[in-house]
Amino acid sequence: MAVIAPIRQQVQLCIGKAGLPVGSLVYVRQGRRENSAFAYDAGWLANSARFNVSADLQLTAGHQPHRATSPHDSVFHGAIADTAPDAWGRRLIARDHAKRRKDDPKLPALTELDYLLAVDDSSRVGALRLRDPDGSWHRAAAAGRRSTPPLIELERVFHASRAVELGQETAEDLRYLQGKGTSLGGMRPKCTLVDEDGRLAIGKFPSVDDARSVTRGEVLALKLAVQAGIDAAPARVVRLGEVPVAVIRRFDRNETDGRIPYQSAASLLQASREEDRSYTEVADAIRTHGHAPTQDVRQLWRRLVFNLLITNVDDHLQNHGFLHVSQGQWRLAPAFDINPFPDKERESKTWLSEQDGPITDVRMLLARAPYFALGKAEALAVLAEVHAAVANWRQVAMGPEVALRPAELDDFAPAFEHQQMDAAAALLGR
Q1: pTM score, two decimals?
Q2: Out of 79, 185, 246, 423, which could bridge 215 as a Cys pair, Cβ 3.0 to 4.6 Å?
Q3: pLDDT, tens digit, 9 for 90 and up, residues 212-224
Protein backbone atom coordinates (compact mmCIF):
# COMPACT_ATOMS: atom_id res chain seq x y z
CA MET A 1 0.00 0.00 0.00
CA ALA A 2 1.41 3.37 -1.05
CA VAL A 3 2.27 5.81 1.70
CA ILE A 4 0.50 9.15 1.31
CA ALA A 5 2.95 11.97 1.96
CA PRO A 6 1.83 14.56 4.54
CA ILE A 7 0.61 17.87 3.14
CA ARG A 8 0.37 21.28 4.75
CA GLN A 9 -0.88 24.24 2.72
CA GLN A 10 -1.85 27.75 3.71
CA VAL A 11 -4.04 30.19 1.81
CA GLN A 12 -5.30 33.64 2.66
CA LEU A 13 -9.03 34.21 3.17
CA CYS A 14 -10.22 37.58 1.88
CA ILE A 15 -13.62 39.19 1.52
CA GLY A 16 -15.54 41.35 -0.93
CA LYS A 17 -14.80 42.95 -4.25
CA ALA A 18 -11.78 44.74 -2.76
CA GLY A 19 -10.37 41.48 -1.37
CA LEU A 20 -9.91 42.73 2.20
CA PRO A 21 -7.80 40.21 4.18
CA VAL A 22 -9.80 38.31 6.82
CA GLY A 23 -7.50 35.54 7.98
CA SER A 24 -5.45 32.49 7.09
CA LEU A 25 -6.70 29.00 6.29
CA VAL A 26 -4.35 26.07 6.95
CA TYR A 27 -5.09 22.66 5.42
CA VAL A 28 -3.33 19.53 6.69
CA ARG A 29 -3.43 15.95 5.46
CA GLN A 30 -1.64 13.20 7.36
CA GLY A 31 -2.18 9.77 5.88
CA ARG A 32 -5.87 9.67 5.03
CA ARG A 33 -6.84 12.14 7.74
CA GLU A 34 -7.67 15.66 6.60
CA ASN A 35 -8.40 18.71 8.74
CA SER A 36 -8.05 22.47 8.68
CA ALA A 37 -7.61 25.44 10.95
CA PHE A 38 -8.50 29.09 10.52
CA ALA A 39 -7.13 32.20 12.23
CA TYR A 40 -8.49 35.73 11.91
CA ASP A 41 -5.99 38.46 10.99
CA ALA A 42 -5.31 41.08 13.63
CA GLY A 43 -6.31 43.72 11.07
CA TRP A 44 -9.73 42.14 10.60
CA LEU A 45 -10.30 41.85 14.34
CA ALA A 46 -9.44 45.56 14.70
CA ASN A 47 -11.70 46.64 11.82
CA SER A 48 -14.89 48.41 12.93
CA ALA A 49 -16.80 46.56 10.19
CA ARG A 50 -15.59 43.13 11.34
CA PHE A 51 -18.01 40.27 11.81
CA ASN A 52 -17.82 36.52 12.27
CA VAL A 53 -17.88 35.08 8.73
CA SER A 54 -18.99 31.60 9.86
CA ALA A 55 -21.13 30.59 12.81
CA ASP A 56 -18.71 27.84 13.84
CA LEU A 57 -15.87 30.34 14.32
CA GLN A 58 -15.21 32.70 17.21
CA LEU A 59 -14.28 36.31 16.48
CA THR A 60 -11.02 35.95 18.43
CA ALA A 61 -7.29 35.59 17.76
CA GLY A 62 -5.58 32.24 17.37
CA HIS A 63 -6.04 29.16 15.19
CA GLN A 64 -9.42 27.46 15.38
CA PRO A 65 -9.28 23.83 14.20
CA HIS A 66 -11.98 21.99 12.29
CA ARG A 67 -12.39 18.32 11.44
CA ALA A 68 -15.24 16.68 9.52
CA THR A 69 -17.71 15.10 11.95
CA SER A 70 -18.78 12.50 9.37
CA PRO A 71 -17.64 11.26 5.95
CA HIS A 72 -20.33 13.47 4.39
CA ASP A 73 -19.19 16.66 6.10
CA SER A 74 -16.48 19.11 5.09
CA VAL A 75 -13.01 19.44 6.58
CA PHE A 76 -13.50 23.23 6.44
CA HIS A 77 -15.53 25.60 8.61
CA GLY A 78 -19.11 26.06 7.43
CA ALA A 79 -19.08 29.29 5.42
CA ILE A 80 -15.79 28.31 3.76
CA ALA A 81 -17.22 24.89 2.88
CA ASP A 82 -20.28 26.64 1.42
CA THR A 83 -18.05 28.05 -1.34
CA ALA A 84 -16.76 24.61 -2.40
CA PRO A 85 -18.07 23.00 -5.61
CA ASP A 86 -21.29 21.01 -5.44
CA ALA A 87 -21.56 17.37 -6.52
CA TRP A 88 -21.66 18.28 -10.23
CA GLY A 89 -18.61 20.52 -9.88
CA ARG A 90 -16.72 17.80 -8.01
CA ARG A 91 -17.57 15.35 -10.78
CA LEU A 92 -16.03 17.65 -13.40
CA ILE A 93 -12.89 18.21 -11.32
CA ALA A 94 -12.46 14.49 -10.65
CA ARG A 95 -12.99 13.56 -14.33
CA ASP A 96 -10.42 16.13 -15.47
CA HIS A 97 -7.92 14.92 -12.88
CA ALA A 98 -8.44 11.28 -13.87
CA LYS A 99 -7.73 12.08 -17.54
CA ARG A 100 -4.57 14.02 -16.66
CA ARG A 101 -3.41 11.23 -14.34
CA LYS A 102 -3.46 8.78 -17.24
CA ASP A 103 -0.83 10.92 -18.96
CA ASP A 104 1.06 11.60 -15.73
CA PRO A 105 0.73 8.68 -13.25
CA LYS A 106 2.82 10.60 -10.71
CA LEU A 107 0.14 13.27 -10.40
CA PRO A 108 -0.93 13.24 -6.72
CA ALA A 109 -4.48 12.39 -5.69
CA LEU A 110 -6.94 15.25 -5.24
CA THR A 111 -7.37 16.70 -1.77
CA GLU A 112 -10.35 18.55 -0.32
CA LEU A 113 -8.32 21.75 -0.63
CA ASP A 114 -7.87 21.07 -4.36
CA TYR A 115 -11.64 20.94 -4.76
CA LEU A 116 -12.11 24.13 -2.73
CA LEU A 117 -9.53 26.03 -4.78
CA ALA A 118 -10.88 24.82 -8.14
CA VAL A 119 -13.87 27.22 -8.10
CA ASP A 120 -13.43 30.39 -10.19
CA ASP A 121 -12.78 33.44 -8.03
CA SER A 122 -15.17 35.53 -10.14
CA SER A 123 -18.09 33.22 -9.40
CA ARG A 124 -17.31 31.80 -5.93
CA VAL A 125 -20.49 31.91 -3.85
CA GLY A 126 -20.77 34.72 -1.31
CA ALA A 127 -18.03 37.21 -0.52
CA LEU A 128 -15.22 34.95 0.69
CA ARG A 129 -12.22 34.66 -1.62
CA LEU A 130 -9.02 32.61 -1.46
CA ARG A 131 -5.53 33.59 -2.57
CA ASP A 132 -1.95 32.39 -2.28
CA PRO A 133 0.71 34.26 -0.28
CA ASP A 134 2.02 35.58 -3.63
CA GLY A 135 -1.32 37.38 -4.18
CA SER A 136 -2.80 35.14 -6.91
CA TRP A 137 -6.51 34.38 -6.57
CA HIS A 138 -8.02 30.88 -6.66
CA ARG A 139 -9.13 30.33 -9.25
CA ALA A 140 -8.40 33.30 -11.56
CA ALA A 141 -8.44 33.40 -15.36
CA ALA A 142 -5.33 34.36 -17.28
CA ALA A 143 -4.97 38.02 -18.21
CA GLY A 144 -7.33 38.98 -21.04
CA ARG A 145 -9.42 35.82 -20.66
CA ARG A 146 -12.85 35.32 -19.16
CA SER A 147 -13.54 32.36 -16.87
CA THR A 148 -17.30 32.77 -16.45
CA PRO A 149 -19.07 32.32 -19.82
CA PRO A 150 -21.61 34.83 -21.13
CA LEU A 151 -25.16 33.72 -21.92
CA ILE A 152 -24.31 33.37 -25.61
CA GLU A 153 -21.91 30.52 -24.74
CA LEU A 154 -24.65 28.56 -22.98
CA GLU A 155 -25.03 26.08 -25.83
CA ARG A 156 -21.33 25.22 -25.77
CA VAL A 157 -21.47 24.64 -22.02
CA PHE A 158 -24.56 22.46 -22.43
CA HIS A 159 -22.98 20.22 -25.07
CA ALA A 160 -19.80 19.81 -23.01
CA SER A 161 -21.89 19.00 -19.91
CA ARG A 162 -24.01 16.50 -21.84
CA ALA A 163 -20.82 14.78 -23.03
CA VAL A 164 -19.72 14.41 -19.38
CA GLU A 165 -23.09 12.89 -18.44
CA LEU A 166 -22.78 10.39 -21.29
CA GLY A 167 -19.17 9.59 -20.47
CA GLN A 168 -18.09 10.88 -23.89
CA GLU A 169 -16.25 14.03 -22.83
CA THR A 170 -12.95 15.08 -24.35
CA ALA A 171 -10.05 16.66 -22.51
CA GLU A 172 -11.05 19.92 -24.20
CA ASP A 173 -14.62 19.62 -22.83
CA LEU A 174 -13.26 19.21 -19.32
CA ARG A 175 -10.77 22.07 -19.70
CA TYR A 176 -13.60 24.31 -20.88
CA LEU A 177 -15.88 23.34 -17.98
CA GLN A 178 -13.26 23.74 -15.23
CA GLY A 179 -14.24 26.38 -12.67
CA LYS A 180 -17.67 26.93 -14.21
CA GLY A 181 -19.45 24.79 -11.63
CA THR A 182 -21.45 26.16 -8.70
CA SER A 183 -21.73 25.72 -4.97
CA LEU A 184 -25.52 26.03 -4.87
CA GLY A 185 -26.97 22.75 -6.04
CA GLY A 186 -26.38 19.03 -6.31
CA MET A 187 -25.55 16.42 -8.92
CA ARG A 188 -27.49 17.95 -11.83
CA PRO A 189 -25.52 19.57 -14.70
CA LYS A 190 -25.23 23.33 -14.38
CA CYS A 191 -22.84 26.26 -14.70
CA THR A 192 -22.28 29.81 -13.57
CA LEU A 193 -22.75 32.36 -16.36
CA VAL A 194 -22.89 36.10 -17.03
CA ASP A 195 -26.42 37.09 -18.05
CA GLU A 196 -27.29 39.58 -20.78
CA ASP A 197 -27.32 42.48 -18.30
CA GLY A 198 -23.88 41.56 -16.94
CA ARG A 199 -25.19 39.98 -13.72
CA LEU A 200 -24.15 36.54 -12.52
CA ALA A 201 -26.65 33.71 -12.93
CA ILE A 202 -26.79 29.91 -12.80
CA GLY A 203 -27.74 27.93 -15.89
CA LYS A 204 -29.33 24.55 -15.12
CA PHE A 205 -29.51 21.97 -17.89
CA PRO A 206 -31.79 18.99 -18.48
CA SER A 207 -30.17 15.69 -17.51
CA VAL A 208 -30.04 12.65 -19.76
CA ASP A 209 -31.96 10.79 -17.01
CA ASP A 210 -34.89 13.23 -16.82
CA ALA A 211 -38.35 11.70 -17.23
CA ARG A 212 -39.99 15.14 -17.19
CA SER A 213 -39.00 18.75 -17.91
CA VAL A 214 -37.19 19.36 -14.63
CA THR A 215 -35.75 22.71 -15.72
CA ARG A 216 -39.18 24.12 -16.61
CA GLY A 217 -40.49 22.66 -13.35
CA GLU A 218 -37.94 24.61 -11.30
CA VAL A 219 -38.73 27.88 -13.08
CA LEU A 220 -42.44 27.16 -12.53
CA ALA A 221 -41.85 26.63 -8.81
CA LEU A 222 -39.87 29.88 -8.47
CA LYS A 223 -42.54 31.83 -10.38
CA LEU A 224 -45.27 30.40 -8.12
CA ALA A 225 -43.16 31.19 -5.05
CA VAL A 226 -43.15 34.88 -5.95
CA GLN A 227 -46.94 34.79 -6.41
CA ALA A 228 -47.15 33.14 -2.97
CA GLY A 229 -45.40 36.10 -1.32
CA ILE A 230 -41.98 34.45 -1.12
CA ASP A 231 -38.75 36.31 -1.80
CA ALA A 232 -37.36 34.00 -4.49
CA ALA A 233 -34.48 34.15 -6.95
CA PRO A 234 -35.60 35.51 -10.36
CA ALA A 235 -35.75 32.73 -12.95
CA ARG A 236 -36.62 32.21 -16.59
CA VAL A 237 -36.40 29.56 -19.29
CA VAL A 238 -33.90 30.05 -22.11
CA ARG A 239 -34.30 27.72 -25.07
CA LEU A 240 -31.37 26.20 -26.91
CA GLY A 241 -33.36 24.92 -29.89
CA GLU A 242 -35.72 22.47 -28.17
CA VAL A 243 -33.62 22.28 -24.99
CA PRO A 244 -35.06 24.32 -22.06
CA VAL A 245 -32.40 25.74 -19.73
CA ALA A 246 -33.33 27.31 -16.39
CA VAL A 247 -31.46 30.60 -15.90
CA ILE A 248 -31.60 31.69 -12.25
CA ARG A 249 -30.23 35.00 -11.00
CA ARG A 250 -27.52 34.86 -8.34
CA PHE A 251 -28.56 36.73 -5.19
CA ASP A 252 -25.08 37.05 -3.65
CA ARG A 253 -24.06 39.96 -5.89
CA ASN A 254 -25.45 43.51 -5.92
CA GLU A 255 -26.03 45.94 -8.79
CA THR A 256 -22.37 46.95 -8.90
CA ASP A 257 -21.14 43.33 -8.79
CA GLY A 258 -20.31 43.72 -5.11
CA ARG A 259 -20.08 40.43 -3.21
CA ILE A 260 -22.53 39.71 -0.38
CA PRO A 261 -21.36 37.36 2.41
CA TYR A 262 -23.33 34.10 2.48
CA GLN A 263 -23.69 31.05 4.66
CA SER A 264 -26.10 28.14 4.41
CA ALA A 265 -28.61 27.26 7.10
CA ALA A 266 -26.47 24.18 7.78
CA SER A 267 -23.53 26.47 8.55
CA LEU A 268 -25.62 28.79 10.70
CA LEU A 269 -26.82 25.79 12.73
CA GLN A 270 -23.36 24.14 12.64
CA ALA A 271 -25.20 21.02 11.52
CA SER A 272 -23.72 17.77 10.30
CA ARG A 273 -25.26 16.34 7.15
CA GLU A 274 -25.94 13.15 9.12
CA GLU A 275 -28.05 14.87 11.78
CA ASP A 276 -31.80 15.38 11.70
CA ARG A 277 -32.27 19.11 12.31
CA SER A 278 -35.46 21.15 12.45
CA TYR A 279 -37.03 24.36 11.23
CA THR A 280 -37.70 25.46 14.81
CA GLU A 281 -33.91 25.38 15.25
CA VAL A 282 -33.54 27.53 12.10
CA ALA A 283 -36.09 29.94 13.61
CA ASP A 284 -34.05 30.04 16.83
CA ALA A 285 -30.90 30.82 14.83
CA ILE A 286 -32.74 33.61 13.00
CA ARG A 287 -33.75 35.12 16.34
CA THR A 288 -30.13 34.96 17.52
CA HIS A 289 -28.38 36.20 14.36
CA GLY A 290 -31.16 37.88 12.38
CA HIS A 291 -31.32 41.46 11.16
CA ALA A 292 -35.13 41.30 10.93
CA PRO A 293 -35.98 38.16 12.91
CA THR A 294 -39.78 38.43 13.09
CA GLN A 295 -40.10 39.10 9.37
CA ASP A 296 -37.73 36.24 8.52
CA VAL A 297 -39.30 33.57 10.76
CA ARG A 298 -42.68 34.42 9.24
CA GLN A 299 -41.19 34.20 5.75
CA LEU A 300 -39.66 30.84 6.67
CA TRP A 301 -43.06 29.46 7.73
CA ARG A 302 -44.57 30.69 4.45
CA ARG A 303 -41.87 28.74 2.59
CA LEU A 304 -42.65 25.60 4.59
CA VAL A 305 -46.31 25.80 3.57
CA PHE A 306 -45.31 26.37 -0.04
CA ASN A 307 -42.86 23.45 -0.06
CA LEU A 308 -45.54 21.13 1.26
CA LEU A 309 -48.15 22.24 -1.27
CA ILE A 310 -45.82 21.92 -4.30
CA THR A 311 -44.16 18.72 -2.98
CA ASN A 312 -40.67 20.22 -2.73
CA VAL A 313 -39.12 17.55 -0.54
CA ASP A 314 -35.45 18.31 -1.28
CA ASP A 315 -35.40 20.90 1.50
CA HIS A 316 -32.15 19.99 3.27
CA LEU A 317 -30.33 22.77 5.10
CA GLN A 318 -27.89 23.43 2.25
CA ASN A 319 -30.93 24.59 0.25
CA HIS A 320 -31.65 27.46 2.64
CA GLY A 321 -29.25 30.36 2.97
CA PHE A 322 -28.49 33.66 4.70
CA LEU A 323 -26.94 36.92 3.49
CA HIS A 324 -24.97 39.22 5.76
CA VAL A 325 -26.42 42.69 6.34
CA SER A 326 -24.09 44.36 8.85
CA GLN A 327 -22.42 43.91 12.23
CA GLY A 328 -22.86 40.14 12.24
CA GLN A 329 -26.57 40.24 11.46
CA TRP A 330 -28.00 38.04 8.71
CA ARG A 331 -31.13 37.96 6.55
CA LEU A 332 -32.87 34.97 5.02
CA ALA A 333 -31.61 34.72 1.43
CA PRO A 334 -34.07 34.49 -1.49
CA ALA A 335 -35.50 31.01 -1.97
CA PHE A 336 -33.63 28.82 -4.46
CA ASP A 337 -33.42 25.17 -5.53
CA ILE A 338 -37.20 24.76 -5.24
CA ASN A 339 -38.53 21.86 -7.29
CA PRO A 340 -41.83 19.99 -7.50
CA PHE A 341 -41.38 16.23 -7.04
CA PRO A 342 -44.53 14.54 -8.38
CA ASP A 343 -43.00 11.08 -7.88
CA LYS A 344 -42.03 11.52 -4.19
CA GLU A 345 -43.85 11.10 -0.89
CA ARG A 346 -44.91 14.44 0.58
CA GLU A 347 -42.45 14.45 3.50
CA SER A 348 -39.85 17.11 4.20
CA LYS A 349 -36.16 16.24 4.60
CA THR A 350 -35.77 18.78 7.40
CA TRP A 351 -38.06 18.20 10.39
CA LEU A 352 -40.56 20.79 11.55
CA SER A 353 -39.44 20.32 15.16
CA GLU A 354 -37.89 17.57 17.25
CA GLN A 355 -41.37 16.70 18.52
CA ASP A 356 -43.20 16.93 15.18
CA GLY A 357 -40.76 15.13 12.88
CA PRO A 358 -40.94 15.66 9.08
CA ILE A 359 -43.60 17.95 7.62
CA THR A 360 -46.39 15.87 6.07
CA ASP A 361 -49.59 17.77 6.83
CA VAL A 362 -50.81 21.36 6.64
CA ARG A 363 -52.46 21.05 10.07
CA MET A 364 -49.16 20.39 11.80
CA LEU A 365 -47.79 23.56 10.22
CA LEU A 366 -50.76 25.58 11.51
CA ALA A 367 -50.36 24.10 14.98
CA ARG A 368 -46.70 25.17 15.03
CA ALA A 369 -47.33 28.66 13.50
CA PRO A 370 -47.02 30.54 16.84
CA TYR A 371 -43.36 29.46 17.02
CA PHE A 372 -42.90 31.41 13.79
CA ALA A 373 -44.52 34.58 15.21
CA LEU A 374 -47.90 33.97 13.54
CA GLY A 375 -51.27 33.98 15.26
CA LYS A 376 -54.08 31.76 13.97
CA ALA A 377 -55.66 34.45 11.79
CA GLU A 378 -52.28 35.52 10.39
CA ALA A 379 -51.31 31.93 9.62
CA LEU A 380 -54.59 31.26 7.83
CA ALA A 381 -54.08 34.46 5.78
CA VAL A 382 -50.62 33.21 4.71
CA LEU A 383 -52.06 29.77 3.93
CA ALA A 384 -54.73 31.41 1.76
CA GLU A 385 -52.15 33.35 -0.25
CA VAL A 386 -49.93 30.29 -0.78
CA HIS A 387 -52.87 28.03 -1.63
CA ALA A 388 -54.18 30.53 -4.21
CA ALA A 389 -50.78 30.73 -5.89
CA VAL A 390 -50.32 26.96 -6.05
CA ALA A 391 -53.90 26.40 -7.26
CA ASN A 392 -53.00 28.60 -10.26
CA TRP A 393 -50.10 26.34 -11.28
CA ARG A 394 -51.56 25.18 -14.61
CA GLN A 395 -52.02 28.72 -15.88
CA VAL A 396 -48.47 29.73 -14.91
CA ALA A 397 -47.05 26.47 -16.29
CA MET A 398 -48.62 27.05 -19.71
CA GLY A 399 -47.80 30.77 -19.75
CA PRO A 400 -44.98 32.13 -21.93
CA GLU A 401 -42.42 32.31 -19.09
CA VAL A 402 -42.53 28.55 -18.40
CA ALA A 403 -44.20 27.18 -21.57
CA LEU A 404 -44.92 23.62 -20.51
CA ARG A 405 -46.81 21.78 -23.23
CA PRO A 406 -50.33 20.56 -22.34
CA ALA A 407 -49.14 16.95 -22.55
CA GLU A 408 -46.44 17.70 -19.94
CA LEU A 409 -48.89 18.96 -17.31
CA ASP A 410 -49.82 15.42 -16.31
CA ASP A 411 -46.16 14.80 -15.41
CA PHE A 412 -46.36 17.48 -12.71
CA ALA A 413 -50.01 17.26 -11.61
CA PRO A 414 -49.43 14.96 -8.58
CA ALA A 415 -47.04 17.56 -7.10
CA PHE A 416 -49.70 20.30 -7.14
CA GLU A 417 -53.05 18.52 -6.98
CA HIS A 418 -53.29 16.31 -3.91
CA GLN A 419 -54.86 15.69 -0.52
CA GLN A 420 -52.95 18.48 1.26
CA MET A 421 -54.23 21.06 -1.22
CA ASP A 422 -57.74 19.76 -0.48
CA ALA A 423 -57.08 19.91 3.26
CA ALA A 424 -55.87 23.52 2.97
CA ALA A 425 -58.95 24.44 0.95
CA ALA A 426 -61.21 22.89 3.62
CA LEU A 427 -59.43 24.83 6.38
CA LEU A 428 -59.97 28.01 4.38
CA GLY A 429 -63.63 27.22 3.69
CA ARG A 430 -63.09 26.96 -0.04
Answers
A1: 0.94
A2: 246
A3: 999 999 999 999 9
| 173 vs 414 pLDDT, higher one | 414
Q: What is the pLDDT of residue 164?
A: 92
Q: pLDDT tens for residues 274-327? A: 888 999 999 999 999 999 999 999 999 999 999 999 999 999 999 999 999 999
As a three-state string, the secondary structure of the chain is CCCCCCEEEEEEEEECCCCEEEEEEEEEEECCEEEEEEEECHHHHHCCCCCCCCCCCCCCCCCEEECCCCCCCCCCCHHHHCCCCCHHHHHHHHHHHHHHHHHCCCCCCCCHHHHHHCCCHHHCCCCEEEECCCCCEECCCCCCCCCCCEHHHHHHHHHHHHHHHCCCCCHHHHHHHCCCCCCCCCCCCEEEEECCCCCEEEEECCCCCCCCCHHHHHHHHHHHHHHCCCCECCEEEEEECCEEEEEEECCCECCCCCECCEEEHHHHHCCCCCCCCEHHHHHHHHHHHECCHHHHHHHHHHHHHHHHHHCCCCCCHHHCEEEEEECCEEEECCECCCCCCCCCCCCCCCEEECCCEECCCHHHHHHHHHHHCCCHHHHHHHHHHHHHHHHCHHHHHHCCCCCCCHHHHHHHHHHHCCHHHHHHHHHCCC
pLDDT of residue 1: 44
